[in-house]
Design a protein that fits this description.
Elements (H helix, E strand, L loop, with lengths): L2 H8 L4 H35 L19 E5 L13 H6 L2 E12 L3 E7 L3 E3 L5 E3 L4 E6 L9 E2 L1 E3 L5 E6 L3 E11 L23 E7 L1
Helix pairs in contact: 1-2
Length: 211
Amino acid sequence: MNTNCLSNAKKGNNCKYSNFYQEKMKTKFLIAFFALIVSYGTSSLYAQTTTTEGASDQVTLNIRLKAIQTLLVNSGQKVVNLDYNTTSDYANGVSSDQADHLTIYSTGGFEIKAKSSSAALTNDGGKNIEVSDIKITASKGATNKLIGVDYLSSALSADGTTIVKSDMGGVNQTFNIKYQSAGADKYINHYKHKEDPTYFTTTVTYTIYAK
């Protein structure tokens, strides 16, 4: 029995009630102490096993390729003359080779067409020369790196004729063009007196198309 209980007994207080109360307080203290330890351990464990991921969303990224085709005629070859100067010219025809005549840029495959502005090369004197007498032939230019290209030889027309076909695109690819006109003395009577020379003229337009 503790001294407080003896002292209380002398005063006539109930010692059993005092002991019971002290034991009860000890129990509450121990429960609170263990609860605090458990709470701390749980909090520590939670802090070690959880992570913060943050918020997220998505975006769609596209690369969008548009078709681009450009074509330029060599600036030094804007006029092409087929001159009949000799009897051999009238007999065999005349040709003119224009090196690197066309320069193209194309994203992907393409075709090149040649088209006359009219059905005939005209002259003020009334006589004409059919544009179909002119043959246009394409070939590979000096800076042309394309492979598997179809180079065609076609008679010129007002409807347009294909002279190049390619399944590949390219940058600054060049093409030679050969112009060739008729022989067999076909134009013997087309010369006009006092005209030197006699001109028959048309305009040829080259166009590149996506393929």
